[in-house]
Amino acid sequence: MNAIVQDEYGSAAVLEERQVGRPSINGGEVLLRVRAASVNPLDWHIMRGRPRFIRFVAGLRAPKPPVRGVDVAGRVEALGKDVTRFQPGDDVFGWCEGAFAEYAGAGEGSLLPIPPGTTYEQAAAVPVAAMTALQGLRDLGRIAAGHKVLIIGASGGVGTFAVQIAKSFGAEVTGVCSTGNLDLVSAIGADHVIDYTTDDVTSGDRKYDLIFQLAGTTSPLRLRRILSPKGTLVLSSGVGRLSGIDRIIKAVVASRFVSQRLVTWVTKNSLEDLEFVSKLIEAGTVTAIIDRTFQLSETPEAIRIVEEGHTRGKVVITP
Fold first, then answer.
1. pLDDT tens profile 38-84
2. With contact defined as beta carbons under 8 Å apart, do 233 and 260 qualify?
3. Burial 87-115 (b: 16+ CB within 10 A, else e)
4. CA-closest candidate to residue 158, choices 136, 142, 189, 187
5. Are strands 227-235 and 208-213 parallel, antiparallel or unpaired?
6. DSSP state, residue 11
7. Which long-range contacts (CB under 8 A, 24 or more apart) does 50-55 make?
8. Alpha-carbon distance 288 to 159, whole Å?
9. Nearest alpha carbon to residue 15 among 25, 7, 26
10. Which backbone phi and psi does 318 adopt, to 5 degrees?
């Protein structure tokens, strides 16, 4: 099969399309014919091996396994002997290792049936981004109906899910994005939009119960100015190679001395959370926004675009 293989850390130039053997599966796994996979910041962080502590987990000299890609949607080709939830021919989505390939192995407990009316491309765009949005808003942000929520980076892969999920909880949502994405963020449900290229979000008088920072370099100390006294600032791992870590350190230090909650976390794979989002998709409450789609051979370019941090929704690979 064809797969995108990485033998060393570096830029997208280290990624090479190559013929490799199909992955073997154990008793609790299924073999998928990959129909679509989506790109996440995790993919380029591991590709580059940055921040460097990632290498202690991913591999000291080169990442293992060598094929990138976590989000996947496809058709079940074969079953491990212990699999009971699926049959060959089922269309499923979820997460795995090595999704940027024609075939991938995935654990039975990491997959769900694709919601009716959802394409492979839309399904592949969901897992990591939607689970990040859900966990950040619900579990860390403790979102509730009537909350005033500010989402910084509302037009990105996680941001487009965050806007829709926040609205599903009954929140009043303000999205922050660039000029060219204002219409998109409004169309997916934001009550208000702020153009960060012309307006400083921290200069207004409006206070928010929950701020979800997914992009930008505004410090937690500045964002506290527009956070209600008992509000919560949720910080994702950030953009750029070091800016996210810098924000997290500042938040951890500041949270010891203020009444407001400043929190961060690492997204956890959860079939229960994926099922929660899947039901929202089936109900028509949430839809995946796709920036563009690339062929498998174009994966290096797709990852480069995501690394730049200016996508409108998700970038998808179609083997």
1. 999 999 889 998 888 888 878 888 888 899 999 999 999 999 999 99
2. yes
3. eeebbbbbbbbbbbbbbbbbbbebbbbbb
4. 136
5. parallel
6. S
7. 50/241, 51/241, 51/242, 51/245, 55/9
8. 11
9. 7
10. -120, 95
